[in-house]
Amino acid sequence: MQIYKNVIYYFRFNIREYFFGKEASTVWNNDRLKEKYPNYVSRHADIRNVADLEKIFQEFGSDIKLIVHTAAQPSHDWAAKEPFTDFSVNATGTLNMLEMTRLHCPEAVFIFTSTNKVYGDNPNYLPLIEMEHRWEIDSKHEFYNNGIPETFSIDHTKHSLFGASKVAADVLVQEYGKYFGMKTGIFRGGCLTGPNHSGTKLHGFLSYLMKCAITGEHYTVFGYKGKQVRDNIHSWDLVNMFWHYYQNPKQGEVYNAGGGRHSNCSMAEAIAFSEKITGKKMNYSYQEANRIGDHIWWVSDLSKFKTHYPNWNWKFGIDDILGQIFEATIKRNL
Q1: Which of 72, 96, 207, 325 is the most exposed place for a label (fewest CB within 10 A)?
Q2: Helix residue ranges, H only, 74-204
Q3: Total number of domains in the chain
Q4: What are φ and ψ of residue 233, in 5° steps?
Q5: Which of 207, 149, 262 is nearest to 16 (CA)?
Q6: What is the C-alpha to C-alpha distance for residues 284 and 47, in angstroms, rounded to an integer?
């Protein structure tokens, strides 16, 4: 991937450590990138602070060709603890990023990582069938056989406060594309993961699960008999989606971004996969109460993106992802 002048500019405040503790810190990865790529430059900024952001945008101005906005508070549970913080990061911070882009580099491509949680708990009212190890969509309803499309309603549903703040950001990014004619793309992620994920109890499903499988740390399964289904997309495949969009950007376009039918698993299946990879039984228990706004079954339909960008396809599946997370976690000494 060629970035303008071969330099990657990375806006970071490491607030993830504040959200989830030291194990969630991304500092180690920032340091790794500095060592591996001599042309990598890091700028520390809190996206809630317009003055700090403006200094960076003024420094590079119209030289900025691509912005990938991934900063977020990503947890249902955490959002309920500090609603002001959650909304200020997810919604107001996104507005700040958009406005700085419009004022200083309006021709730049702006990619925003939204979330499937903008659909709230509406997917839970789809016709689902309980199977031995997972919930699955009733095949009689062929419309959803490839997963849930972008046309699915985000209204009249319980989102959680996190989901609500991401809806606000999602719609803002759409509006800057459609109203101001900017090149903004919204990618509604399922579970975004990979070997360098700093997974924690409240965020990072497969990464945290594998960490517990390796260490024997206790893991809790919340609700739905442990059969809830998630699609998981490898970070390489997600960035490749961004790359294809960057080549031919559209204005205020919305895409689902997940593992789809290619890469998904239930909680029970993920535990079984992890036990097979580690050769150890997991230390886990089950709690009947599910997390508020959580999905019973989520599989993204990526038909729209694949129609717009037919040369894109997945490279990695669940087995690849969990295997790579296992190897990377062992290598990092947890």
Answers
A1: 96
A2: 76-81, 83-87, 93-104, 160-180
A3: 1
A4: -110, 130
A5: 207
A6: 37
What is the average pLDDT value for the chain, to the nearest integer? 91
Give residue for tokens 């039984």.
281
Residue 3 confidence (pLDDT): 41
Question: In angstroms, rounded to a whole number, what is the distance separating the alpha carbons of residues 244 and 277?
Answer: 33
Distance CA 252, CA 123 (A): 24
Domain range spanning residue 200? 4-331
Check the CA dihedral 147-153-158-159 and report its sign: positive
**Dihedral sign, Cα of residue 71, residue 77, residue 78, residue 81:** positive
Cα 274 from chain centre: 21
Structure tokens at 90: 């997810």
CB 90 within 8 A of CB 76: no
Spatial separation of the C-alpha atoms in residues 154 and 148, rounded to whole Å: 12
Amino acid at 313: N
- ∠74-80-83 over CA atoms, to 5°? 85
Quick: pLDDT tens for 256-305.
999 999 999 999 999 999 999 999 999 999 999 988 878 999 999 999 99
Task: Write the DSSP assignment of 111-147 as a string of letters.
Answer: EEEEEGGGGTTGGGGS-EEE-SS-EEE-TT-GGGTT-
Distance CA 83, CA 37 (A): 37
Are the beta carbons of 20 and 201 closer than 8 angstroms?
yes
CA–CA gap between residue 330 and residue 98 (Å, rounded) = 39
